[in-house]
Every structure is written in C-alpha cells, then in structure tokens.
Design brief:
Length: 505
C-alpha cells in the first residue's frame, strides 16, 4: 500500500510528532512538497504532505491561520509538516488551534530532521509500493496464464476474482453470463446484461463503470479490431489498485485470446463446413461423416434441422451452441445467407427462434426452418428451409417453419402482388361483362365452383333456374376462351376468386 501519515510518523529516523488531526493519520500521501508561500494552493494537486517553516506566514494570527488551513484542506493537502527551531521554536498556538479545529493533521518536524529526509522517505515508500504492485501484477499474469492454458476461461475468471478481492464474470456476445466467480455473484452478474449489450454496440476496445449500492463494477469489452467478442465484469468494493489493474489487463488479454479465433483458422473451419454441407446435400452422408470426423460430434446423425437465415444470426447461434455444449455447422452462402445444421430440439434452434422474435424489427432477421431430417434427407431439408424462408419474406415474418406450411392452408400464400395481378387479369373480362348489367357471371361462377359443378345446388344458392345457370357458364367459357371441363381451369379460377377476395360470400 502507498505511504500514509501514520507510516511516516512511525519512521524511526524522522522523529515526527503528531500535534493535531490524530484521527486522519491513515490518509495516503502522494508526495511531500516544500513551500513557504502564504498561498501554495495553486501549486498543489491533492494528496500532498506540505512542509513549511512559516517563513512568510502570519503564524500568530488565528484568523489568518484558519484561512490558511481551510485553503490547504480545500486543495486536498493531507497534512502539514511544521519545522520547529528555525523561524519558531515551537508550533505557534494560532496554527495549532486552527489545525485542531479543522482536523488537519499537523506534524512537528524537529530541527535535526531535514525536509529532504521526509521527501526521500515518501519517495522510497511510493517506489516500494509501485514495485510491489508491479511484482504482484506479473505474478498474477503468470498465474492467470497458467490457468488459461490448463483449465480455460472459467479458471481465469476464478483467479481474477481472488486477485481483486471481489467477483468477476465473463459474458458472450449476446450478453449471457458464461462464467462467474464466486458463485454468489451470479445474480449480480446477470443483472448487468443490459449494460453489456450497450457495451457490445460500441467499437472495441470499450469500457464502462457501473456504480451500485453494493459494489463498483468495471465492464471491459473483449475482442480484437473493432469487433466485440464478449465482455468481462469486475466487481470490487473500491476502485482498483495498481496490482489489481495489472491482473485485470492480463485477464482481458488472455480471455480475448481464448474467445477470438484467428482469421485463418476460422476461414479453414468455414471451408471444411462448406465441403461437408455440399456432400450432405449431394446425398454423400457417409463421406461427410468421414471428412468431419469428431469435429461436429453426432450432429451429422439424425435428427437435425436446416436453417437458412441472414448472416447476422451467426454469432448468436454459435454462442448458444457453446453454452449448451452442442455442435453446430454454420456455413455462409455469399454475403446475404447463412445455412445452419443444428440438432432438432436443441439450444441452437431455440436461440434462433428467440432471437428472431426479439430482434426481427431492428436487425432485419428472417429465417426459414426445415422439418426434422436425417442424413440422407439433407437435400430435402435444405429445400424446405429455402421454401420457408421465401414465405417468411413474402409475409414479412421473422421466422417460418416448414411444418407450419404443411399443416396450414395454401390460401395465405396467395397474398402476393404477382398472384393478385394474375387473378385480376383472369377475372377482368367477367367483371366488365357484369358491369354492363347483362348478368352476374362472377357470382354464378363462384357458386358453381363452390358446389363442385352441381347445377341444381348452385342454382338454388343463386335463386335462379338451373338452365339460367347453364347459360351463364357457357358465357363464362366464351368470354374466357377456356373450357370449364378442364380441372386446371377450374382450379385457377377458384384460386383467382380467393386471391381477389371474391371466393367467399
């Protein structure tokens, strides 16, 4: 720890005597400064022990000494050393009373103790403290490095918490706590997720101090360049000292190395993943397994899901896989698409669904999700995911599952501008005919199609004779130039009525 007034008083060679401010002797001393000025405040930075012989002071005027002492305290001076036997044989009563009134530590310096000796003692103590801090910092660095190499990020967090006499937590890119030590700090660390998310949006390296009622927390981003890969939180009861700061900086460097994979390694993994995916889509599941080895664990065995999404999801899905201990195969397709193989019912699929719900509007997230599939059906699952993605974009939804399409109605798919334009073009001639007042062909067509071509039932719905309905259907065929005996024509007309909203009563 740095020198204090108490440690200087206890220094046997200095022979200092406390005359006032006995309750403030534990105050750290940043420097010892000699000044005979009546107002030395402009030259003070705070934390100094001021040494004087009162050469220019009106030391016997109580009001003058009160003003002098108050100015010193206002400037952050931590103590006053007064040399006796030079200009005054003893400390003047006025100065002594003023110091006692304001609780300013006042030290009597005997004539045989030069001010230089006090300055040297303070300088030596500060140097020794800095040396201890640097030594402790290097020892912490060595210990943290051994922990990182032997045990991983969790051990680094645990060692760091012990070094700062507080707690530490590691977060991934989504703001989720990955590791925390001690365990009691887990709830405190979880409450900082919004602060971590705000830090994530700033270019790396970034830091923030979060003040609380229980502790002081420093947040530091992890990552190289301008990309944040995670965050480190350090909570302590007081600001970090020099040794603790060394330990934190070492932990940041080590955790960045463990979370930031090299670009060449990442590119190699992507090339491997792309090759494996292509083999899976080509129906070469056995070859894909042989190439993958143990890299993706049991992911290539059934069941899995295929996701086609925007690339912004890559980090969130990889983080979810890491937290759950799951394997995931994520392969970029150009700059606009990401293809993912993930275990059915696992954390990756759940994270994708959750992320899509939370961030869809801000990040433009859109995802297509296949049905569960096995290795030999990978190509089918990929097509399903693409189809679901296409539907999600048309409907303006963040995520669509292929199973939902198969279980639902085809009618919502008609809500497309191209389909409506086709429907309007198909029915326009019939509407133009009806607008002249010469019949109700559109309504008659709708009734006839809804009754599957049953003349009597359709005529009854319209309230006309069946011969009238037959005449109208012949007019429809003449106007459209198409036969209603063709099932494709009937299907297209029915879908056109549904697409334009004319397929219901």
């Amino acid at each position: 720890m740095p020198p204090t007034l108490a440690s200087l008083v206890q220094h046997s060679a200095l022979k200092l005597v406390v005359r006032a401010g006995e309750d403030r002797l534990d105050t750290p001393v940043r420097w010892a400064h000699v000044s005979e000025l009546a107002d030395p405040v402009p030259y003070m930075e705070g934390g100094e022990l001021l040494l004087t012989t009162a050469l220019t002071l009106d030391a016997e005027d109580l009001e003058a000494m009160r003003r002098y002492v108050r100015r010193l305290l206002g400037a952050g001076v931590v103590g006053l050393g007064f040399a006796v036997g030079v200009n005054y044989e003893e400390i003047p009563p006025a100065l002594l009373d003023a110091a006692r009134e304001e609780h300013l530590p006042l030290l009597e310096v005997p004539r045989r103790t030069p001010f230089l000796a006090i300055s040297k003692a303070v300088s030596a103590a500060i140097s020794a403290d800095q040396y201890r801090a640097v030594t402790a910092g290097f020892e912490a660095q060595r210990e943290l490095t051994r922990a990182a190499l032997a045990e991983g990020p969790e051990a680094v967090v645990a060692r760091l918490a012990a070094h700062v006499d507080g707690w530490a937590a590691l977060y991934d890119t989504s703001g989720t706590v990955v590791a925390v030590s001690p365990e009691w700090a887990a709830r405190r660390a979880a409450r900082l997720t919004p602060d971590v998310e705000r830090l994530r949006d700033r270019p790396a390296p970034a830091s923030a101090v979060v003040g609380g009622t229980d502790d002081r927390v420093e947040l530091q981003s992890l990552g190289t360049g301008r990309r944040v890969r995670g965050a480190l939180a350090v909570g302590t009861g007081a600001p970090l000292g020099t040794a603790e700061r060394y330990a934190v900086h070492s932990a940041i460097a080590l955790l960045t190395l463990t979370t930031e994979r090299s670009r060449s390694l990442q590119a190699a993994e992507q090339r491997l993943g792309s090759a494996i995916l292509q083999m899976m889509l080509a129906g070469q599941a056995e070859h894909a397994r042989a190439v993958a080895g143990d890299v993706y664990g049991g992911l290539l065995d059934a069941p899995f899901r295929v996701l086609v999404a925007v690339p912004v999801l890559a980090e969130a899905l990889e983080a979810a896989a890491a937290r759950a201990g799951e394997a995931v195969l994520a392969v970029p397709e150009g700059e606009r698409r990401l293809v993912v193989l993930a275990g059915d019912g696992g954390a990756v699929v759940a994270a994708c669904e959750g992320y899509a719900e939370r961030e869809a509007e801000d990040a433009g997230v859109v995802v297509g999700l296949s049905a569960p599939a096995g290795p030999i059906a990978a190509a089918t699952a990929y097509k399903q995911a693409e189809q679901a993605l296409s539907v999600a974009r048309r409907r303006g939804r963040a995520l669509v599952e292929h199973e939902d399409l198969a279980a639902g109605s085809v009618l919502p798919l008609l809500a497309d501008d191209a389909v409506r334009a086709f429907a309007d073009g198909m029915l326009r001639a019939l509407r133009d005919h009806d607008a002249t007042g010469r019949g109700d062909l559109v309504a008659s067509l709708r009734a006839w199609l809804s009754r599957h071509g049953q003349w009597d039932a359709a005529a009854a719905d319209l309230g006309v004779h069946r011969h009238t309905l037959r005449y109208r259907m012949r007019r429809v065929e003449e106007i459209l130039g198409r036969s209603l005996d063709d099932p494709d024509v009937r299907m297209e007309l029915w879908l056109a009525l549904k697409a334009t909203g004319e397929g219901t009563e």
